[in-house]
Amino acid sequence: MTDKNIPRAILLFSCPDSKGIVAEVTHFISVYGGNITDSNQHNDSETNTFFMRVAWDISDFDIPRDKITQAFEPIAIKYNMDWRIEFSDRKTRMAIFVSKFDHCLYDILLRNKEGEIDADIAMILSNHKDAEPIAEYFDIPFYYFPVKRENKTELEKEEISLLKKNNIDLVVLARYMQILSPEFVKEFRNKIINIHHSFLPAFAGAKPYHKAFERGVKIIGATSHYVTEDLDEGPIIEQDVVRVSHKDGIPDLIRKGRDIEKLVLSRALKLHIDHRILVFRNRTVVFD
Amino acid sequence: MTDKNIPRAILLFSCPDSKGIVAEVTHFISVYGGNITDSNQHNDSETNTFFMRVAWDISDFDIPRDKITQAFEPIAIKYNMDWRIEFSDRKTRMAIFVSKFDHCLYDILLRNKEGEIDADIAMILSNHKDAEPIAEYFDIPFYYFPVKRENKTELEKEEISLLKKNNIDLVVLARYMQILSPEFVKEFRNKIINIHHSFLPAFAGAKPYHKAFERGVKIIGATSHYVTEDLDEGPIIEQDVVRVSHKDGIPDLIRKGRDIEKLVLSRALKLHIDHRILVFRNRTVVFD
Amino acid sequence: MTDKNIPRAILLFSCPDSKGIVAEVTHFISVYGGNITDSNQHNDSETNTFFMRVAWDISDFDIPRDKITQAFEPIAIKYNMDWRIEFSDRKTRMAIFVSKFDHCLYDILLRNKEGEIDADIAMILSNHKDAEPIAEYFDIPFYYFPVKRENKTELEKEEISLLKKNNIDLVVLARYMQILSPEFVKEFRNKIINIHHSFLPAFAGAKPYHKAFERGVKIIGATSHYVTEDLDEGPIIEQDVVRVSHKDGIPDLIRKGRDIEKLVLSRALKLHIDHRILVFRNRTVVFD
Amino acid sequence: MTDKNIPRAILLFSCPDSKGIVAEVTHFISVYGGNITDSNQHNDSETNTFFMRVAWDISDFDIPRDKITQAFEPIAIKYNMDWRIEFSDRKTRMAIFVSKFDHCLYDILLRNKEGEIDADIAMILSNHKDAEPIAEYFDIPFYYFPVKRENKTELEKEEISLLKKNNIDLVVLARYMQILSPEFVKEFRNKIINIHHSFLPAFAGAKPYHKAFERGVKIIGATSHYVTEDLDEGPIIEQDVVRVSHKDGIPDLIRKGRDIEKLVLSRALKLHIDHRILVFRNRTVVFD
Its catalytic activity (chains A, B, C, D) (predicted)? Predict the structure, then answer.
């Protein structure tokens, strides 16, 4: 409900909890003429860790935007914060990795067109050529990397180089059927979002719909998470489910699953590009 | 996730939006040694109204609890706030009104026993004697008011007097099949919570399950709301739904509906007694 | 889970309930060498009406498909059935009406491409030219009918003529912002499916998201129904909902609503083209 | 929607699929004057297995009820059926096992009182005395079996003997915190229903809410299943989920989980006692 046209700074941090943090942070914003438009906090009582997201209108802020980080740093140091500052009018630059299934790809591109996923979709990369006409229709550069076991190291290097050169800050695996190497993952810590077609931690790994059918579950799910070195073990951003029955064979699970894959991935992307997610100990704090 | 044993003050307010409110409120708490445990805010851009709920640990607060209101008043006046301060260790005193259906009554009493609805259930009032043994089992005083058209004005006066004498601050209509008079409602503004067995505004008034069956809907609902002078028109606190089909006759709708009536009413009660609701222009802001 | 490649006959009927119907119908199928692949029945106890849908493999059926109707007729007459026979390998010919919003249009076209909505999409009709490039991308004929108050009667006649000429048997209003005349509706009884962006009967008519916001509901919905002469009063096929909160302004309701509009409309279309719906007294019996 | 007062026979079977089964079964019912009130079938195309549930009014059935099994047997043998016949007016005799948590126990007892779970609750067994006053309030015999590692074999024998003597045909583990021995399980094949407080197969075994919190899932679940020798691996009857967030600590997961545990267990019990479940290869076919 926030007016999207107002430029805002968004501060996200976690730190050991102590008195006066909120007061000091909000005073910093207020004293320089910022108007807080959105504020959320959370306290993890188990670890005594404090989390906060605060956004403020910087139209009349006395500190120019390129000096805000520097100005806030003393407070961050004082409270030992893990922090970052984002700006609402700087669009996330996104690269979409895809294989042959195109439903998530279409979904992201259409939501982008609607302004719902308000990012710069800078490129589509694929190990197949199937998505090339889609890229063309939506006028997005398409790159073909026929990754195979024998050329994976080399092609991943090229991919990383391409992503870096294009200032990509979010890699989306939109049903990309390849596992990224630990080296790739390290380059984009908390910047790779995957959609897994099961309700994790159930049915991690390959062929989750087949496993779900075999086990006879009455509900199937989808999970969007940040990619870490451990397959399907990264911090979960969003999940959703759909009811199934004995009437649903594997093709039905796949069909019903597509709808939740699209919804879950797109919600996760929106939360990420709106800078609403903090990662802490392989879990996420999502300020929606 | 907040430790329930820490005594906290909870400030709730709405006011015209302007710069510096959050900073001033949090500074007030911080400067007297309060530690904020929970904070939420909302801005209604249409009316430019600001809403806030902030809770702080008062164990080491420099202002004694009976002076906090007085101390905060200048800020409230400055920003033209509609405000109140509650204390987490003062339990809401609840009266439950019930007729013959007892599923919501049992549900509230059992959740109270679990500590989930953490209120003092001071009494059960009914226009029937059916619930008396239930009251006895849970050791709650039971009052029988056989309200009829001809004695309604008189009995309502007695009820109001009984409620006032017992310092009741929340009246729960747990499938109470009587309409309260405007006079009664006025005495407990935003302090009467009803459960209506439909997805309002669909099927307001009597026999909603019959109407839902007649219309052939594929989903039925329940709505918990504050009672106002306009029947089923008060501010909605919580709603939920359940899927139905052509296989469900009216008795099935009634059966399926019971489950969501219980869930929706109990969630609304928990939100109210945890002081998470602000009412504004016949809508609610719910800080959960 | 039925093998789509097996040609099947699908019998749907309703009739006054009496003994032996199921036995007689299944005997008819069995005696001529049909193998039942799917069977559903329902009894409306209020009106004592019996409903049945039964599908059978006709690969080895002794009656040629163009004689099945004639062969079954005596049974239909005996039990006073309202009945029809469909064939699984005859695709429904669909025309999509659309205005400016294209999310439902894209959704149907993509599901059609996936084989999920297994119809012949014969044409797209619109009162605006916005959807023309979409039609082109998916290679579907596009027709522009700039319907206005003054030319409505005339243009509707042309539309009806075009639909008839092309043997259209399902008209889909995919967020078509025009009301069809009673004359149009009469031509396609139970063959026009609309998506309404509210949880009917709540918020019928124009601007349901604005009304939902105004009322302060906590859940919004979408409803797919057959179009009748009474606006938003036709038999409901499918509904679904999504949770909202005070944080959601009208643009958020519109955004969240798009997802359920797409899901609800596509489910209704799938049920219709799979011949799973019987209409009875302005309600639907849906054999899924 | 079926009239509960009409006595009905309910035939359930699975067998290798072949032509004419439905016709032969329905002819058997029809020819002796039975009126089919409910019929469902399913074909598992992977294993080519056919499943059917058919219920018929036996008020005017020409075969007395104690001869129906014998009369049907030739058809069962012909098609190599795994089959049983139940009667709607013979109530399932249920024993509830419980430990200290009483929310599922109360829930079942209250639904039984409402007529929703229409069984004879013959006894409550527990390894603690906490539930004794509840048993007393609802007027159900209570048995105390303080099962410990050292006396487990012996006490289980006594339990089995007690259950047999009382003709118990359904054992409900309503958050019973003991694992039954394989010997116990063998005695009640497909007649023991457990509620597990996770979305199986995720978080099988002990402390699922703690594991769910640790993993950072965004949705938690509950699963009702038949108990087999493999812990939490039996055929799943019903599952449901509830959304959680970073705000929910373990006590919140436990609280939110209670609601779905109650709902899922009670739905599974209703399906079982209404004879709507067939077990096949560790999965269930549920004709609802």
Answer: (6R)-10-formyltetrahydrofolate + H2O = (6S)-5,6,7,8-tetrahydrofolate + formate + H(+)
Candidates A45, A201, A286; nearest CB to D215: A201
* Residues B37-46, mean pLDDT to the nearest whole number: 90
Under a CB-based contact definition with an 8 Å cutoff, are residues A134 and A106 in contact? yes
Nearest partner of C56 among C68, C71, C74, judged by Cα: C68
CATH numeric code, D8-87:
3.30.70.260
pLDDT digits (tens, 9 = 90+) for C186-207: 999 999 999 999 999 999 999 9
Residue A6 confidence (pLDDT) = 87
The values of phi and psi at residue C25, to 5°, are -65, -45
Which residues in chain B have their CB less than 8 angstroms from residue C42's CB?
Answer: 246-247
Structure confidence by residue, pLDDT tens digits, B235-263: 999 999 999 999 999 999 999 999 999 99
Instruction: Report ipTM for this prediction.
Output: 0.95
- pLDDT band for position A4 (50/70/90)? low
What CA–CA distance (Å, rounded) separates B68 from B29?
10
What does the block give as tokens for B155?
A: 């009995």
Which of A14-28, B253-267, D69-83 has the weakest average pLDDT? Answer: A14-28
Residue C197 makes CB contacts below 8 A (sequence gap 6+) with: C175, C208, C209, C222, C257, C261
C2 pLDDT above the threshold of 80: no
Select from C103, C110, C247 the Cβ nearest to the Cβ of A1.
C247
Task: Specify the pTM.
Answer: 0.96
Using beta carbons and an 8 Å cutoff, which residues of A are at the interface with C? Answer: 1, 103, 106, 110, 114, 116, 137, 247-249, 251-252, 255, 258-259, 263
Nearest by Cα to B216 from C236, A260, C150, C25: C236
Placement of tokens 């109707």 in the chain: C69
Q: Where are the alpha helices (DSSP H) in D79-168?
A: 103-114, 132-138, 152-165
Query: pLDDT digits over A175-206, tens only?
Result: 999 999 999 999 999 999 999 999 999 999 99
Q: Can you give the residue ranges of every domain in chain C?
A: 8-87, 93-286
Q: What is the token pair recorded at C3?
A: 């093998």
Distance CA C252, CA C210 (A): 11
- What are the tens digits of pLDDT across the range B223-238? 999 999 998 999 999 9
Does domain C93-286 fall into CATH 3.90.420.10?
no
CA torsion, ordered D242, D248, D249, D250, to nearest 10 deg: -10
How many angstroms separate the most distant Cα atoms in chain C?
63
Binding-site residues on chain A for chain B (CB distance < 8 A): 1-3, 19-24, 26-27, 29-31, 33-41, 43-45
| Closest C-alpha among D119, D127, D143, D162 to residue D266 | D119
Give Cβ neighbours of residue A269 (< 8 Å, ≥ 6 apart): A94, A108, A117, A119, A170, A172, A193, A224
For residues A193, A198, A203 and A207, what is the CA-based torsion angle, rounded to 10 degrees? -90
Phi-psi region of B275 (alpha: psi -120 to 50; beta: other; left: phi over 0): left
CB-based contacts of D8, cutoff 8 Å, min separation 6? D2, D37, D38, D55, D56, D57, D58, D87, D88, D89
